[in-house]
Each structure stands twice: as C-alpha cells, then as structure tokens.
Amino acid sequence: MTDMTATTLSTPNRSVTVQLEPADYLAASRLHSRRQIFGGGRRGINITVIVALVLLGFIAAFALNPGQLLRTLGILIVCLIAILVIAHFLIIPYQVRKIFREQKTLHVPYVWTWTEQGLEIRSEKYGHTTYPWSDLFRWEEDQHIFLFYHSSRLFSMLPRRVLSEAQADDLRRCIQAARL
Prior knowledge:
The protein has 5 helices and 7 strands. By secondary structure, the chain is of the alpha+beta class. It folds into 2 domains: about 1-20 and about 110-180, PH-domain like; about 20-105, no CATH class. The strands form 2 sheets. The chain has a 4-stranded antiparallel beta sheet with strand order 1-2-3-4, with helices on one face. The chain has a 3-stranded antiparallel beta sheet with strand order 5-6-7, with helices on one face. Helix 2 crosses helix 3 (about 40-60) and helix 2 runs antiparallel to helix 4. It is elongated.
C-alpha cells in the first residue's frame, strides 16, 4: 500500500477542465502556421522553394539592368514584411475571432484526461472520445498551447494556461513514451 501511495503522490493530476477562449485559438493558429511555413516537412520545404524561385525570377528579370535590381529587391522585401505583419496582427486575429464565434463546439467546457495509452476528451454536450497516441498524426507545443494533430491540418488544442508545470511535463512524458 505504501508503494501505491508514493506512486500516486509522484504522478500529477492527469485531468483538467478547459473552457477555450479566442486567445487560445489564436495561439493554436499561430503555432500551426509557423510549423506549416517554417517547421520543415514537405509543405515547409515547398513554400521555401516557391519563395526562392520568385526571388530568383526577380533577380533574373532585372539582371540586365543592375541599377534596378537592388531597388526592386528592396521593394520586394519591404512588401513581404508588410504582408507578414498585416497578416500576423490583423488578418489572422480577425479570422480566428470569426471562426471562434461560428464554431459552437469551442464554447463549451471540456475535460481532458491523459494516460500512457492516449487522450480522452469529454464534454456534457458533445460526449467523449478517446484517442490512442498511435492514432494521432503528430503533436506540437509552444509556451501557450499543445496541439494534437488528427491529420496534417486538423488538431485538438489544449492551452498551457490550464496545466501546471508538473502536468505539462507529465503530458509530454506520456507523448514521448508513446513515440508520437
């Protein structure tokens, strides 16, 4: 009995209740976007190749007139930075707030439970589902959120704000032990 008590005390509570907020969905969208663009994998490489080809095209187009090359590249870089800033601070937050308003399944509390075998997500309104770790496509995390991917674009999100550090560490250990 003493061994069981020691084990119970060393394992953090593996269940949390989550009420998602628009900021959680924004953090998830930003992490997903960063991983899609810069995280490597096939899609990340494709975007890098496309950007490189566009830049090479501009260089080739203006190679005959070297005086215009630097000016054109400067304009291109400024426009690219402006587009990224506008998307990051205006477009993505607007789209996320709109989707959050529209998707009613994001407005109810969920209870997340994890074990060495997988995740269970429950709500009074929508029932429950269990995901063995082996059925998940991959996972990502940053300082704001955990993402559990069902496919390359569909994910469930667990905000870090509802987890203690011990719970976050325990969840990470379960994921890594499953080799997800």
